Amino acid sequence: MGRHVGWRIVDRWKEKAVRDGVRPKTPQRYQAWVRAAGGYEKRSFGEAHDAKAWAIQRAAQVATAGQPETLLLLDRLIGPWAEDLRRQGRVESYRAEAERQVRSAIAAGCSDLRQAAGFAAMTRAWLDGLRPVRKGTLEQISASTRAQHLRTLRSCVHWALRQPGAEGVVDPLRGVTVAVPVEGLRETFSVEEGRRLVVAATASDYGLWVAIGLYAGLRSDEAANLTWTRLDQPAQRILIRRDAGETWRLKRSWERIVPYQAELAGLLEPRRQAIGQVVPAVAGMICRQRQRLFAEHLRLCQIEPRGRTYHCLRHTWIAWMLATGEPSISVQMAAGHRVADTTGRYARETVLHRHAVSGWGRGEFRLLGV
Q1: 329 near 344, Cβ under 8 Å?
Q2: Do 250 and 134 sit in the same domain of this protein?
Q3: Separation of alpha carbons 16 and 23, rounded Å
Q4: Does 240 share its domain with 335?
Q5: Looking at the structure, do residues 161 and 241 belong to the same domain, yes or no?
Q6: Quick check: is 257 in a domain?
Q7: What's phi and psi for 186, nearest 5 deg?
Q8: Residue 188: which residues within 8 A CB-CB, separation 6 or more?
Q9: Strands 231-232, 30-36: pairing kind
């Protein structure tokens, strides 16, 4: 089954079948081995998860034997907790970020679980003092991000309180909360506003950049760095990828395929070149410059910005795709979302557009009436 530091799980059925060629009749299939003083302690179980649970708890007892005070110090338990996340199947990036957040709390004084009042006060001070990872900024992170840090710390604390030797210890995070404002709907573009954006698309390169975001749902960096070689008109698809040597950020480095709308092809194909970027004028700009150009383009189209950003085009694309009847799993894959919940948050405005796109084909945009 697997070997770990201080313990391992043995599949007795598999070993018996390999050694003797027969399957044993014992119902206790899994055997847990824990390294202790003078050898190994063994116990048999019918289920693998029961064997793992006992082995983890017994290994923690053996590791902390004679020093019970270490059972309640997070800086001593963060390593076993991270190992438990790995056994749960958490990806490396998740484990690294969770461990970084907990170590940040420990550095702020959140370590001794026996001091409930002090631990809670230290946690509140840590949350209030959190700043973005970017250096040289004094702005405070959002309430939702602080709440996510608190959830990670609470997960580690609750895991520690379930370990042997922590019986009777009060949860030091009880009553510690972060007030998260209600997330409102992200304002999307109506079909009429979309038509204005597309009609003005050929007036400048910036207009084409906006049209790409509206028709393909790309992020700002993805649309600005899109190259002609990734537009496949015969297959009606756009390949989103970052080649070696390119410095722009592709979120999670996930490559994906996006439908190449016929109307978007009608705008871009007459300008096709053998190589190079589709909208080179935007590629070298920083995010703030792009947002300023985006707001100017909206005003040019007689559309009031109302705080809408380029990312609102992505929300609009997802809402329109789902409103036309495109399966949610297809939209999720094309959008590059790891989980369906993310697509669901983007799609809350779908019902607002269902009537306006009722004459469109499934997954097909008809802003120009083609």
Answers
A1: no
A2: no
A3: 6
A4: yes
A5: no
A6: yes
A7: -75, 120
A8: 312, 315, 316, 319, 349, 352, 353
A9: unpaired
The answer as to whether 363 is a domain residue is: no
Per-residue pLDDT of the chain (370 residues; tens, 9 = 90+): 444 557 788 887 776 555 555 555 667 778 888 877 667 888 888 888 788 877 777 776 666 554 444 457 888 888 889 888 888 877 787 888 899 999 999 988 888 888 888 888 899 999 988 877 554 445 667 888 889 999 999 999 999 888 877 777 889 898 899 887 765 566 889 999 999 999 998 877 789 999 999 999 999 999 999 999 999 999 999 999 988 778 787 877 678 999 999 999 999 999 999 989 999 988 888 888 898 999 999 999 999 888 889 999 999 999 999 999 999 999 999 999 988 888 888 888 888 899 999 999 999 999 986 5
Kindly state whether residues 323 and 214 are assigned to the same domain: yes
Rounded distance between C-alpha atoms, residue 76 and residue 55, angstroms? 19
Provide the 10 A C-beta neighbour count for residue 67: 10
Structural domain for 78, as ranges = 68-180
Same domain? For 32 and 112 the reply is: no
d(CA 58, CA 37): 12
| Statement to judge: residues 323 and 246 lie in one domain | yes
> In angstroms, rounded to a whole number, what is the distance separating the alpha carbons of residues 149 and 100?
10
Total residues found in the chain within this entry:
370
Burial class (CB in 10 A: 0-12, 13-18, 19+), 55: buried
Instruction: Give how many domains the chain has, as a whole number.
Output: 3
Residue 358 is assigned to a structural domain of this protein? no
Report the CATH number at residue 331. 1.10.443.10
173 contacts 157 by C-beta, under 8 angstroms: yes
In terms of domains, do 241 and 336 share one?
yes
Residue 158 lies in a domain: yes
| Inter-CA distances, 170 with 75, 116, 117, 229, Å | 18, 7, 10, 60
The residues, ordered by sequence, that sit 6+ positions from 12 with a Cβ below 8 Å of its Cβ are 24, 26, 28, 29, 30, 31, 44
Do 174 and 97 lie in one domain? The reply is yes
| Residue found under tokens 């998740």 | 94
